[in-house]
Task: structure prediction
Amino acid sequence: MKKRALITGITGQDGAYLAKFLLEKGYEVYGTYRRLSSPNFWRLQYLDIFEKVNLIPADLVDTGSIVEAVKISEPDEIYHLAAQSFVGASFEQPIGTGEVTGLGVTRVLEAIRQIDPGIKFYQASTSELYGRGHSSSLNENSPFRPASPYAAAKLYGYWLTRQYREAYGIFACNGILFNHESPLRGLEFVTRKISNAVAKIALGIEKELRLGNLEAKRDWGYAPDYVESMWLMLQQKEPDDYVIGTNESHSVKEFAERAFDIVGLDWQEYVKVDKRFLRPLDVNFLQGDYSKAKAKLGWKPKVKFDKLVKIMVNEDLNRWERWLNGERFPWDAPNYPSEAKIITRVLRV
Ligand code: NAP
Ligand code: F7E
Result:
């Protein structure tokens, strides 16, 4: 019989790639989506899997809808990916982020405990748990010092996952994933913000790129590589927690420099620092030591920094060229307003 998986947040970057991966493994895939005034299925359409997945409306703030999703899908495995996932927005909406990104985890775990404790559970934990004050590669034993409402909510989810494992024997795993990016990344995240702007500048549609903290360093991997690790964690004999990264760290400045290089432009002529994109607290260095995942899961990253930047810039260039030639296809960028249009309070003065 086909295995069944439920993915919360199937409309997001990881949800879409994971759905494709699990379909290729022969799973019957169910995914939760939010009822929005305009549907947000572009990633599933872009990967050509929209017709192959089963969609269930559910919201993490609505316990009943989560319970329904578990009952309808009768899953062997739940991949809990849904969250308010943007760190910057968590400073603007700290309470909503706690509700969704933190308490949402308990709602899913409670549904498992009450409906079928045999369901395996993956929690989308994050390198943001480590927070500030680190300068070397981080592993499963490194201390957590969360530095945003997002990270604090995720720390709560991390511990709830461990508690349900220890208290109720649920097969529950934390994947502590470092940043992972792709052409399906949301436009507000820095890598895609850069690749999209570079493509537009190269084609003469835009003139400059406004960024915040250029010195921040991240361990950037490739999302399709990372979703495989989620599945591997749930195929082990025992539940456990794993760091997933590339064990390399690069600054935002380096990302911008490489991205502009690809189109033959000098980044310094186009990038402007704008304090609107600075955070009240920022994490300045993250690098993930994935030795445990390599040894126990047999996992390692296939795409590293240079290749990742190329994949993202070339895909955004290709999309804007097609668009300018009159082609229309599922894609987020043309509908996304310039961030200059969005008014928020300045978070750091
Ligand atoms: P993403 O693209 O922002 O996707 C988030 C998903 O959550 C979307 O499907 C979104 O639905 C859904 N969602 C948001 N609020 C919800 C709510 N109230 N109820 C139900 N669904 C809701 O995030 P991602 O990059 O794929 O990341 C997946 C998960 O991994 C997240 O939990 C994130 O925090 C975590 N994580 C990400 C990274 C990374 O580098 N990407 C690293 C570590 C951990 P809509 O489409 O309707 O907005
Ligand atoms: O910022 C700096 C910013 O928003 C990266 C989420 O998936 O990964 C992601 O969180 C860095 C930060 O990602 C801009 O200050 C400079 O230092 O792309 P980001 P993030 O905050 O690392 C983790 C692992 C997650 O779990 C999250 O869900 O880049 N930065 N200038 C900027 N960031 C943004 N967004 N925009 C700028 O203009």
Observations:
- The first helix runs from residue 13 to 24.
- Residues 9, 11-15, 34, 36, 40, 59-61, 81-85, 100, 124, 126, 177, 179-180, 186 surround NAP (ligand 1) (CB under 6 Å).
- The mean pLDDT is 97.
- The chain has two domains: 4-180+220-244, 186-219+249-283+304-341.
